[in-house]
Amino acid sequence: MLVGDSGVGKTCLLVRFKDGAFLAGTFISTVGIDFRNKVLDVDGVKVKLQMWDTAGQERFRSVTHAYYRDAHALLLLYDVTNKASFDNIQAWLTEIHEYAQHDVALMLLGNKVDSAHERVVKREDGEKLAKEYGLPFMETSAKTGLNVDLAFTAIAKELKQRSMKAPSEPRFRLHDYIKREGRGASCCRP
Ligand SMILES: Nc1nc2c(ncn2[C@@H]2O[C@H](COP(=O)(O)OP(=O)(O)OP(=O)(O)O)[C@@H](O)[C@H]2O)c(=O)[nH]1
Predict the structure, then answer these.
(1) Which of 21, 45, 138, 186 is the most buried (most CB within 10 A)?
(2) Where are the domains of the chain?
(3) What pTM, to 2 d.p., does this model score?
(4) Nearest to 79 by CA among 134, 170, 4
(5) Pair 68, 92: CB distance under 8 Å
(6) Average pLDDT, whole number, for the chain?
(7) Residue 114 in contact with ligand 1 by CB distance below 6 A
(8) If you measure from the C-alpha of residue 97 to the centroid of ligand 1, how many angstroms do you get, rounded to a whole number?
(9) Does 188 score more than 50 pLDDT?
(10) CA of 78 to the centre of ligand 1 (A)
(11) DSSP letter string over 1-68?
């Protein structure tokens, strides 16, 4: 499930991952909730991701609350060109702790890094916040595709590991994976 303020790029990130395209131009805000499926091959196993795109607007909050409970993973986004969206991350985390399962896989993403001139949230600020909460963190761009596949693949690997419960397999470590694979990605252990 993708969550975060309105306009941070949740729908665009999802469309980039699903279809490899970027929705440039008019911003059409999500109404309520929407979903898309994608089947991934994760180390030889087919993983079907059902990805829920939530509306960031406050007026739809009660709708999205109902979906947290069933989410296995959450991508929490802010927009690096919008300070308020970053400042609101703590409020989103409070909401997540209230409504989501306590062991939900959670990742923090700072989106729109292609807009270098408009950036107001430094990468280090994202890293610091992620470290504070023990979250894996990456900067992404739905426009260029930077780290988009990586974010979803890392989550898919984590979910596959959790559902297979194969003790013989080496434990998948999401933090280490994104640190190794990410372009400009970083991770922060608690
Ligand atoms: N430059 C740039 N623009 C982006 C990026 N991702 C999204 N946008 C733009 O940001 C605006 C909002 O994108 P959406 O994906 O609709 O935002 P959202 O988070 O789904 O918004 P809500 O549905 O209201 O919650 C659109 O005009 C997009 O074109 C990105 O990575 N880079």
Answers:
(1) 138
(2) 2-185
(3) 0.91
(4) 4
(5) no
(6) 89
(7) yes
(8) 25
(9) no
(10) 10
(11) -EEESTTSSHHHHHHHHHHS----SS-----SEEEEEEEEEETTEEEEEEEEEE--SGGGHHHHHHHH
- Kindly list the strands in the beta sheet with 73-79, ordered across the sheet, starting from the edge strand earlier in the chain: 33-42, 45-54, 2-4, 73-79, 105-111, 136-139, 186-187
Q: Which of 2-11, 37-46, 152-161, 167-176 has the lowest mean pLDDT?
A: 167-176
Residue 184 pLDDT level (bands cut at 50, 70, 90): low
165 CA distance to ligand 1 middle (Å) = 36
Q: Residues, the chain, total? A: 190
Please say if the pLDDT value at position 170 is more than 70: no
Mutation test of ligand 1: which of 6, 11, 140 has the most ligand atoms closer than 8 Å to its C-beta? 11
- Homologous superfamily of 2-185: P-loop containing nucleotide triphosphate hydrolases (3.40.50.300)
